[in-house]
User: What shape does this take?
Amino acid sequence: MSQVTGLILAGGLARRMGGGDKGLRQFRGKLMVAHAIERLAPQVDTLLINANQNRESYAALGYAVIADVIDGYAGPLAGLHAGLSACTTPLLVTAPCDSPFLPLDLVTRLRAALEDDAAQLAVARSGGWSQPVFALCRREVLDSLSAFLAAGGRKVDAWFATLTIVQVPFADEAAFANINTPEELERLENQ
Assistant: This one.
């Protein structure tokens, strides 16, 4: 997949996990973020990790680590903003650090829909729900996102509503399972 940068979103506070850093939790014998990296890295030219804490631990994985430019742990849009600001390719795809089963054809399918619909952003849809942190966007949306964030916007769906987007259906709901709580971590660990 040429001309695509991948961005692993690991910049949150993991409040539902009880704090700490979700991406650095162990899952099936390795760091949770390592699972996401293994699945996304082969689909992109360059991989970045968005992290606001434990940056040295993430850097030890061998990829560039970028922090949010916007203060206060402003959510996934702040991570996307940091990624778009650092991106040198025309396209950027995002995936969260807590999704160890993300689709191996995520970028291919999102990109095909993005190009077919001449959209600004393609987002995965599974189980009847949009999966907004699994998205492929054109770097040119950076100005729109910067303005949205500068005006105090933080909700992903509110920003998406300002763009030309295409939703891409994926049948495998388990591919988008993310681990937000200790209970989910334990349940998926034992499956």
Q: What stands out?
A: The chain is about 30% helix and 25% strand. Residues 85 and 142 are 7 Å apart (CA to CA).
